[in-house]
Structure formats: structure tokens, C-alpha cells
From TrEMBL:
<dbReference type="Pfam" id="PF13549">
    <property type="entry name" value="ATP-grasp_5"/>
</dbReference>
<dbReference type="InterPro" id="IPR016102">
    <property type="entry name" value="Succinyl-CoA_synth-like"/>
</dbReference>
<keyword id="KW-0547">Nucleotide-binding</keyword>
<dbReference type="Pfam" id="PF13380">
    <property type="entry name" value="CoA_binding_2"/>
</dbReference>
<keyword id="KW-0436">Ligase</keyword>
<dbReference type="InterPro" id="IPR003781">
    <property type="entry name" value="CoA-bd"/>
</dbReference>
<dbReference type="GO" id="GO:0005524">
    <property type="term" value="F:ATP binding"/>
</dbReference>
<dbReference type="InterPro" id="IPR036291">
    <property type="entry name" value="NAD(P)-bd_dom_sf"/>
</dbReference>
<dbReference type="GO" id="GO:0003987">
    <property type="term" value="F:acetate-CoA ligase activity"/>
</dbReference>
<feature type="domain" description="ATP-grasp">
    <location>
        <begin position="544"/>
        <end position="580"/>
    </location>
</feature>
<dbReference type="GO" id="GO:0046872">
    <property type="term" value="F:metal ion binding"/>
</dbReference>
<keyword id="KW-0067">ATP-binding</keyword>
<dbReference type="Pfam" id="PF13607">
    <property type="entry name" value="Succ_CoA_lig"/>
</dbReference>
<protein>
    <submittedName>
        <fullName>Acetyl-CoA synthetase</fullName>
        <ecNumber>6.2.1.1</ecNumber>
    </submittedName>
</protein>
<dbReference type="InterPro" id="IPR032875">
    <property type="entry name" value="Succ_CoA_lig_flav_dom"/>
</dbReference>
<dbReference type="InterPro" id="IPR013815">
    <property type="entry name" value="ATP_grasp_subdomain_1"/>
</dbReference>
<dbReference type="InterPro" id="IPR011761">
    <property type="entry name" value="ATP-grasp"/>
</dbReference>
Length: 743
């Protein structure tokens, strides 16, 4: 399916063009005329000769050419037939506004959508919708749009939204958001979000894409589209609205609670170097920032490619306010060269975990809040070297102390030269990646004060010219970043962000890493959905037998049907033992008292067995050796999400309470597992200390990768080992839950 003609049409037909004001057919024609669409436009209407000066023909077959895009603005019942007619005429694609299809969940609506899909498939023709607002190709001046539209200045941000309102609001926002293309994809009956993402990644001028998703759809297609973005250096920001059901797996395992659908999608997005948004405002600010940034590298921060990539094309850039700040009294001269490059720390070499964000402000309050927000959102702040601190001391007023956040105080607020010099000198430190500058500019300021506000802005703009792709400029409150200021900053390669918290998150997004297109294509290859986890659920002893066959260490043990048999098994194994109840309907054993640990005497084994057999749940006794002491961890594989993932967490009954989890899209290597474990908040427990030896992470990683292989080869929807006891005496999966694929 080729979306090129639909996303950048050179000719358009509006089917259902109407003379009735306010109708979709009337508005669609008006939008094309108002936008100054440069190609031929035709209406299709049974009687009207023209609409808004656009000539009309009675039928699609009467069009004088095969249009690249057909806008179908007619009632739902007519749509399948019109899609077929458009395909027969050779249209490159169609946009369908009408509702009344599968979203109604009625037999008639579902049938209509099936007919629409069949008609489009007959001609291999992409369709946007139904039940959406359409497509706006801002750069091509082609609004195939059924809602209000105001012509905007084009740029490098694309938006694909499963919510029509998110798309409408983005087009009407006043935030310096230079949009390239906006897609409101509706029901996604034919073309889905992943298809648009892949097509936009290949479009000239697209530098970042914002995705608003309610249903992530086909994981393979999404991973392949993210791979295309990684290959082209296109940034991605994602917001998921709502959450889908976790399925039956969550009822019998911890995995559903700590690795829900949204978290699986987030793991894929972050693996791709994307940014995860929490609301539409944040989504747009992140996408705008990524469009200004240099592309991410496979092992370094954004900017590990050619730094100048982050600058807008020459056609979009304004003439710099200050090409070169005059030499200041302190002898600092600001040019296009990033300070520090002469010491071998060019932007393309800035990489590694030590790189962080630099915060620059003239307010102690803003500095404190920015530091707090960075800590809250996990955004690392750079530690400035002594050499950088000395250089900054020569620029700062006597009342200021060099550090990060860098508070240069109100004493020099409005001094363009010193502001630019401070930013660029501090940014030249090898530990500094993105730079967050706090700057408020009210739309109206008291008479006589504008010169200081604008002087500070000019200094920031000059620094932006010297630091392409690295500068985020954030207001403390959203309303203090008016569109005029945002447009100026964008024109000089800086990302204007409305709000201090959003600024911290956007600067942090520039530290993103990506495994690259090859890794994402591996994920795509593994992303065949396993189906739901509603199939058979083997009992624990059966799950452990399966694990043992894959070389996963589990405790030695045997089943028993009576207390006498349990005593005999314990005697054969040697005490102490664990006595459990094992059955397909038994989930969290500790919650129902279905496990007794560290049982040593025969009479205690008998008593435990008697009590367990008296529980109101079906099962048989399982008597096992006690595992050697160690740290409790969890390993799980979930294959019924958007992509298969390996889940690692601190384990036991605390896994949901602590919510300390890392998800890794499959496939994974042992080295990736070890790195993931070190990202856990509880990782300090694994390092030993106070007489405890460190945990053997290599053995844990080997167990985890075998678990992933087991789940894949046995076609399991869910596999969970919790806890896995990891210690010097061995690594043992002491509990196991398996869910096979449902019908």
C-alpha cells in the first residue's frame, strides 16, 4: 500500500462537494481553496456546476483525470460503492469522513466497514478513516480536512492521531508548532497509524512524528515503522490514551499488573529512542523538540550524528538576530563553533551515561524547581568540570556561583552578549548534552522593560545558533511562551517549550538512545502475536517440568496426593522442604495460604499437607527442596502484547507494591538482561555488602534468556518465574506460572 499520493497530493476530487454551508462537502472544498492548493481540484455532485468556484462533475467516472486523493464527504451507506468507483478511476487514495461503521459495534456498521475494506483492497488503494477528520498536508497546502482549518507555516513536525480532537487542537494551537502533515486516522479500516508513520519517515522534511494511539495495532508493523524512523533519524513521541484489558493472564500472575499493555508499548517506543508523553500538551512539545534536535545515535545522545541536522532548512530559517556576539569585556567571543571542540569534545563525540542536561536560568527559584523536576522525572543533570566552573566565574556577577542549574541571576538579565557567552561556555563542557534555558516573555510587558526581556532573548538566540540541535527554551508557565517568541526561537534552531516541567522532559528526551533500525527489525520479526493467554494453564509442577526441560533450574520435588505421600517425599528429598498446593486455578499462593516454607519435621509436613488439602481450591501437593538463600527477583515473558517482552523485576510478593520493573522487547541477549537489571531501583541489593556477596547476574541473565526461548518455542502467551532466588548458592526459579495461547 503506497501512501505517497494521498499524503502529498497534486490533484484532489471532493466527492459530495456541497453548496450547503457547514457540511463536510462544503468545508472540504473551502479549505482547499483557502489554503491555496496549487493543483487541480474538482467536485463531484449530481447537479451543481461549481462549489466555491471549483468545477463539479456528476460522477467520479466523469473526472477529467485520476486524482491523487479523493475526499469522500457523503453518508456512510454510500461510501463502499464510492471507494470502488474511486479505485476504478485510478485514485491514489481516499479520505472518508463519515461515521456509522465498525465503531458503532452494530452488525450494519461492521458490515459497511468490511465492504469498504474489500473495495479498497480490490484496487490496493489506501483509505484514511472512516470516522476521522482526514489529512492535512501542511507543506503541500493540501487540507483534505473536514473541520476548521487555518493556514499555518509549515515545518518538520508530523502528527498521527487516533483522536480527531487531538489533531484539530494541534492545528489550531499557538505554540510555534510548525507542522508538516497531520493525520486523523479514525477507524483505521485500511491504513493504520504504523502505515502513516512509515510513510512519513520517508517523507522529505519530516524530522519528528507525534503519535496519539488508543490501539497500538499490529506490533510487527509498528516496530518496522519505528525502524524506518531510526534509519532516517526521525524522532518519535507517543501518547497512549486509555488502556486495554490485560487479559486473563493478570488473574494468575504478577506480570499483568507490572507489564500492562501501555507499558509494553512504552518499552517498544523507548527501545526505538522515542519519547513517552503523558498528555496531548506534552506530546506536541516533545514532537516539536525532537524536530529541532539532531538525530539519535545507536550508542549516544541525540546529536551523535551531524550536529547541523538539528537546524531548520535554510528556507525556514530567519536571519540570525546576532550572527556573532561582540567581544565582551571578559574576553569571551561567541561564534558558530561550540566551545570545547578545540579540546576534542565535539558534539558528535558526546556520548555515554555521564552526559546530562544543563539548566540555565536567571532565577534561583526556577533553578530549584528545575532541579526538583529533573529528579522527579529521572532526567540527569550534567556535572560541570572545574575548568568550566573557572571559565564561568569570569563571566558571572560576583553574587552568582557556577553550577548546574546555572543561575546567572537578574544582575545581568538582558545582557545579550554575556547571556550567549554563559550558555555556550557551559555547554562546551564534555558532560553537557542538551541545554535547557528558562526564559519567560509575556505577550505584553511594562513600558521600558521590553529591552531587557528582548536582550535576554537575543542572547539565547545567539547561543542557539552556536549550539544547533541542543537548545530547549522553556517558559516557567505555558502562557509565558507566546507564539511570536516561539516562532523566532524555532527559526533559529531552538525548541520553544511552554512550561518548565515540559521543558525538563523535552531536554531529557534529547538524551534518548536508540538501538537502531536493525535491532527494531529483529523485534518486528519476533512480534507475531501469541494470542490471548486464555488457553490452558498448567499446574505449577507441570510448568516446572517444562522449565527443567529447557535447562532452567528449579527445585527438586515431587507431587503427592496424601499427607503420607508428602511425608515420604520429604524424607527422600531431605529437609527442610516447601509444601505447596499445585493446580491450574491457583494463582498467588501466598494470598490464599497455599504454601508452607522451611518445613523440617515429619509431623509438620503432615500438618501442612492436611491444611493445604483442606483449602477450597482444587490441586495436589507439591513437596520441594528449599532453594539456597539469595535475593528474590522475577522473570516473566509476555507474548500477547503489542510485541513480546521480557520482564525483570525485584521479585516475591513485593513486585506489585514496589513497581520496580524493566521491560525488554524480545529478542534479548544476556548482556541486555544484565544492563536491564542494573536499571532497577533495587539494583543496590544485588551488589552485596554488609557481609553479603554480590548476586551472580550472569546466571540470572542465562535463566532469563532461556525463559524467553521457552516461551517462544512452546508458543506460550505468558511465562512467569516469581520468585527467582539469586545467590551464591545458585539461581533457582522457585515458582512458575504458564499460560498457553487461547483459542
Amino acid at each position: 500500500m503506497n501512501l505517497a499520493r494521498l499524503l502529498r497530493p497534486r490533484s484532489v476530487a471532493v466527492v459530495g462537494a456541497s453548496t450547503r454551508p457547514g457540511s463536510y462537502g462544503n468545508l472540504a472544498v473551502a479549505n482547499l481553496v483557502t489554503a491555496g492548493f496549487p493543483g487541480p481540484v474538482f467536485g463531484v455532485h449530481p447537479t451543481a456546476a461549481e462549489v466555491h468556484g471549483v468545477p463539479c462533475v456528476p460522477r467520479i467516472a466523469d473526472l477529467p483525470l485520476a486524482p491523487d486523493a479523493a475526499v469522500i464527504a457523503t453518508p456512510a451507506a454510500t461510501v463502499p460503492g464510492l471507494v470502488a468507483e474511486a479505485g476504478a478511476r485510478g485514485c491514489g487514495g481516499a479520505v472518508v469522513f463519515a461515521a456509522g461503521f465498525a465503531e458503532t459495534s452494530t452488525p450494519g456498521g461492521v458490515r459497511l466497514q468490511e465492504e469498504l475494506v474489500a473495495a479498497a483492497a480490490r484496487y490496493d488503494m489506501p483509505v484514511c478513516g472512516p470516522n476521522g477528520n482526514g489529512i492535512v498536508a501542511v507543506a503541500a497546502r493540501a487540507p483534505l480536512w473536514g473541520d476548521a482549518y487555518v493556514t499555518r507555516r509549515p515545518g518538520g513536525v508530523a502528527l498521527v492521531s487516533q483522536s480527531g480532537n487531538v489533531a484539530v487542537n494541534a492545528l489550531l494551537s499557538a505554540r510555534g508548532l510548525r507542522l508538516h502533515t497531520v493525520v486523523s486516522c479514525g477507524n483505521q479500516a485500511v491504513a493504520g497509524a504504523a502505515d502513516y508513520l512509515a510513510a512519513l519517515a520517508a517523507s522529505d522534511g519530516v524530522r519528528a512524528v507525534g503519535l496519539y494511539l488508543e490501539d497500538a495495532g499490529d506490533g510487527r508493523r509498528l516496530a518496522e515503522a519505528l525502524a524506518a524512523c531510526a534509519d532516517r533519524g526521525v524522532g518519535v513521541a507517543v501518547l497512549q490514551g486509555g488502556s486495554s484489558a490485560l487479559g486473563a493472564a493478570s488473574a494468575a500472575a504478577h506480570t499483568g499488573a507490572v507489564a500492562g499493555d501501555a507499558r509494553v508499548l512504552r518499552a517498544l517506543v523507548e527501545e526505538a529512542g522515542g519519547a513517552w508523553a503523558h498528555n496531548p500538551h506534552e506530546l506536541l512539545e516533545l514532537a516539536k523538540t525532537l524536530a529541532c534536535a539532531a538525530p539519535p545515535g545507536p550508542t549516544g545522545i541525540a546529536g551523535s550524528g551531524t550536529p547541523a541536522w538539528g537546524r531548520p532548512p535554510e528556507s525556514e530559517r530567519e536571519a540570525p538576530v546576532v550572527d556573532q556576539v561582540p567581544e565582551a569585556e571578559h574576553g569571551v567571543r561567541v561564534t558558530g563553533q561550540v566551545p570545547g571542540a578545540e579540546r576534542g569534545v565535539a558534539v558528535s563525540e558526546r556520548r555515554g551515561p555521564e552526559v546530562g542536561v544543563l539548566v540555565v536560568t536567571c532565577s534561583g527559584g526556577d533553578a530549584a524547581v528545575a532541579a526538583d523536576e529533573a529528579a522527579r522525572h529521572g532526567v540527569p543533570l550534567a556535572t560541570l568540570s572545574e575548568a568550566t566552573r573557572v571559565a564561568l566565574q569570569n563571566l558571572l556577577p560576583e553574587t552568582a556561583t557556577p553550577g548546574n542549574p546555572l543561575d546567572y541571576t537578574a544582575v545581568i538579565f538582558g545582557d545579550a552578549a554575556r547571556t550567549a557567552a554563559l550558555i555556550t561556555v557551559a555547554a562546551g563542557d564534555p558532560s553537557v548534552g542538551p541545554v535547557l534555558v528558562c526564559h519567560d516573555r509575556p505577550a505584553s510587558v511594562p513600558e521600558g522593560a521590553a529591552a531587557e526581556w528582548d536582550g535576554a532573548l537575543e542572547g539565547i538566540i545567539s547561543a542557539a545558533e552556536a549550539l544547533p540541535g541542543r537548545l530547549v527554551v522553556a517558559s516557567t508557565l505555558p502562557e509565558l511562551m507566546p507564539e511570536e517568541v516561539a516562532e523566532r526561537l524555532t527559526g533559529h534552531g531552538a525548541a520553544p517549550v511552554a512550561g518548565l516541567t515540559e521543558g525538563v522532559r523535552c531536554a531529557g528526551a534529547l538524551l534518548r538512545r536508540t538501538a537502531g533500525g536493525e535491532r527494531l527489525r529483529e523485534i518486528a520479526a519476533a512480534a507475531t502475536r501469541a494470542g490471548s493467554a486464555a488457553g490452558s494453564r498448567p499446574a505449577e509442577h507441570e510448568a516446572k517440568a517444562l522449565a527443567r526441560s529447557y535447562g532452567i533450574p528449579v527445585p527438586a520435588g515431587r507431587t503427592a496426593r496424601t499427607p503420607d505421600e508428602a511425608v515420604a517425599v520429604a524424607a527422600a528429598l531431605g529437609v527442610p522442604v516447601a509444601v505447596k498446593l499445585s493446580g491450574p486455578d491457583i494463582g498467588h499462593k501466598a494470598d490464599i495460604g497455599a504454601v508452607v516454607l522451611d518445613v523440617r519435621r515429619p509431623e509438620d509436613v503432615r500438618a501442612a499437607a492436611d491444611r493445604l488439602l483442606g483449602l477450597p481450591v482444587e490441586g495436589m501437593l507439591l513437596v520441594e527442596e528449599m532453594a539456597p538463600p539469595g535475593v528474590e527477583m522475577m522473570v516473566a515473558v509476555r507474548r500477547d502484547g503489542v510485541v513480546p517482552v521480557l520482564v525483570v523485576a525485584m521479585g516475591g510478593t513485593w513486585v506489585e507494591v514496589l513497581d520496580d520493573t524493566v521491560l525488554l522487547p524480545l529478542p534479548v541477549t544476556p548482556e541486555q538482561v544484565v544492563a536491564a537489571v542494573r536499571r532497577l531501583r533495587g539494583a543496590a541489593l544485588l551488589n552485596g555488602g554488609r557481609g553479603r556477596p554480590p548476586v551472580p547476574l550472569a546466571a540470572f541473565a542465562a535463566l532469563a534468556t532461556r525463559a524467553a526461548a521457552l516461551a517462544r518455542e512452546e508458543d506460550l502467551a505468558l511465562l512467569e518465574f516469581n520468585p527467582v532466588i539469586v545467590g551464591p548458592g545458585g539461581t533457582t526459579a522457585v515458582d512458575a506460572v504458564v499460560a498457553r495461547v487461547g483459542a
